[in-house]
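Problem 12. The chain below contains 167 residues. Write out its predicted structure in token notation.
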Amino acid sequence: MTAKNLLNTEVTMGIIAAQRGMWFEEFEVGQCIITPGRTITESDIVSFAGLSGDYNQIHTDVEFGSKTPFGKRVAHGLLGLSIVSGLAMRTGVLEGTVIAFREINHWKFSLPIFIGDTIHGELNIIETKAIPRLGGGSLNIEIVVINQRDEVTMKGIWTALVASKPK
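Solution.
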């Protein structure tokens, strides 16, 4: 396969498989992976409201939010969950190796996330189970979502199916 570079010179391109994730066998109970952080914006909340159809006033109405026990608007809980899912993928540990995201268990929303908060996730491997018929295994991952004040905003357990290293 050939292509032209910026100088209009023909170059030969090789096809390289992009797999940077960890195989099932590389995960061990006790491993902890820290995601990068991300600041929640008003645009995130408005976009999520449009995507989900959840225009609840606690998320979208400044005046209403000011009269709640929180004193201001809060991000959708599922927005925080969705963002931490993306942050987990940004670590690269499941890039090209995840088969499926299977379950969410024991999820608890502990504190609100506000516009301007920066959250990150801590992913703790708590159980591994080989499933040879799937060509991989199951990981139970405790996810803890933490804000810039080092407060836990939500946590729970995800189950993901991850491929085994090819033989």
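Discussion. Residues 30 and 125 are 6 Å apart (CA to CA). Students who got a different answer should revisit the alignment rule from Section 12.3.
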